[in-house]
Design goal:
mainly alpha; 4 helices
Length: 69
C-alpha cells in the first residue's frame, strides 16, 4: 500500500507531492531502514513531469529534496 501511494504521487502539485513524499518516505524508512537512498531518488524522480525529471537527472541529486531546496 505504501509503495503504491509513493509511486502514485505524480498527480499532485509540487508542494503537495514533496510533502506527501516525505511523509511516505518516513513511514517506509521506519518499516524498512535498509532501503537505499537511490530507491527514494528514483521514486521521487519518477513522479515528476518528464521535462522536470530530465533536468533533475542531469543534476544527479544525492537526495530526493536536494534540488528543491
Amino acid at each position: 500500500m505504501l509503495l503504491k501511494n509513493l509511486t502514485s504521487l505524480y498527480k499532485r502539485r509540487r508542494l503537495k507531492y514533496v510533502d506527501r513524499f516525505d511523509e511516505l518516505k518516513s513511514l517506509m524508512c521506519a518499516l524498512n531502514p535498509f532501503i537505499l537512498e537511490a530507491y527514494y531518488i528514483s521514486s521521487f524522480l519518477s513522479g515528476l513531469k518528464e521535462y522536470i525529471r530530465s533536468i533533475l537527472k542531469i543534476l544527479k541529486p544525492a537526495t530526493p529534496m536536494q534540488d528543491f531546496d
